[in-house]
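cron nightly-structures :: item 1 of 1
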Amino acid sequence: MELKGTHTAIVTPFKNEQVDYAGLEKNILFQIEQGIDGILVLGTTGETPTLEEEEKTKIIQLAVKVANHKVPIMVGTGSYSTHHTIENTKKAKDLGADSVLVVTPYYNKPTNEGLFRHFKAVCDAVDIPVVVYNIQGRSAKNIETPVMKRISEIPNIVGVKEASGSLEQMMDVIHTIASQKRGFSVMSGDDAFTLALISLGGKGVISVLSNLFPAKITAMVNAALAGDFTKARSLHYELLPIFKGAFIETNPIPIKEAMNMCGMAAGGCRLPMCEMMPENREKLRKILLDMKAIV
C-alpha cells in the first residue's frame, strides 16, 4: 500500500443525537465523486470517543460498502489500551478496512520503550497496513524521531500522520526515515501545513477541510506532488482563511458547523463537544460567504 494524496478524515453526522447513516453515505459518495484518494472513518474528526461499539461497526461496514473499492478505507483503531487497540484493529480488518490509523496512546503517557512495544504488539497481532498518528496536543506524548525510526522498521508500518505542529520534526522524519525506507509516507495532519510538508518531501494530507472542499484540497495536493508549486501555492492561499477558521474552536466543531451552513449532512456534536460560540459562528460564516461557499 502506498499512502499518498488527499484522504478525508470524515465527520460522523448526527441527527437528533443519533448517527445519520444516510447522511454519512451521501458524504462518502460526494467525496468519491470529487476525486478524493481515500477516506478515514473513526478518527478524531469522526468523534470516535463518543460512539458506541455497535455504531462504530455500522460506520465501518457502511464506508466499506459505499466505497466499493473505488477508494481505500482507513479506520481509526487506536486507544490508550494496547489490548483494545489490537481488538479494534482485528475488527476493522475483518470488516474490510484497507488500513488502520493508530494514535499515540493518550492519557497514559507511555515511555518511549512502551510506545514502541505498543505499535509492535499491534503489528504482530494483525497483518494490515498501519499508519501512526502523532498528535501530542491530544495524546500528551510526542513521538520523537528516533522512536519513530524504530517504529517505522516494523514491517506493516506504512507511514505517519504528522500533527506534531513542528515543521522541524516533520523534516527530520522525512530526511532520516522516509528517504531511507521505501513505502513509508509522511502525511500532514494539519491542513495548513500540507503544502509546506509536500515541498519538503511529504506525500499528502489526512484532511479535515476536504470534508467540505475535497476537489480543491485534492487539486492543491496533486499540483504540489507534481511539482507545480505556483498552482499549489495559489490554492493554498485561497483556502488559507478556512484553514484557520476550521480550527477556531476544537475540531470537529467548526467543520461540522461549516458543513451545516453549506447544506451538508453533519448535524451537531455529542457532548462533551458542544455548539460553537455565536461570535465564532459568525466569523466562520463570513469566511464561507467570502469564499462563495454559501450565498
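cron nightly-structures :: done
The first strand starts at residue 5 and ends at 9.
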